[in-house]
Write a structure and sequence with these properties.
alpha+beta; 5-stranded mixed beta sheet; 4 helices; globular
Length: about 110
């Protein structure tokens, strides 16, 4: 299973990086301690910013908690963005080979 083998190496993210390229621009996340993927809406879009944290054999809820605890939203706010932000936690289970996802609006 290619997705199973490449998830850990994050190679399977290339389709995600092309997501909404007309509506979003992807931000570099910098050193460890930041979210895995950040999307900031382009000026012509009314879409929310997206902060995506990926987990491996943990839980999507743990990813959401990590984003809140480490205040990942500050990275987007430093760009001057003042719109809505969605936190997206995704976990992949090697046991079940299934993904779980939680999406929360950051308040």
């Amino acid at each position: 299973d290619i997705l199973h083998m490449t998830w850990r190496k994050r190679k399977s993210l290339s389709p995600m990086k092309k997501f909404g390229k007309n509506l979003y621009r992807q931000l570099k996340t910098g050193p460890a301690g930041y979210a895995d993927i950040l999307f900031l809406p382009k000026c012509t879009s009314d879409k929310p910013a997206l902060i995506i944290e990926l987990k491996w054999d943990k839980s999507a809820k743990k990813a959401i908690t990590q984003m809140k605890d480490r205040q990942y939203h500050q990275f987007i706010e430093k760009t001057g963005y003042q719109g809505n932000i969605l936190l997206i936690g995704i976990n992949y289970s090697t046991k079940t080979r299934k993904h779980t996802c939680i999406i929360e609006k950051y308040c």
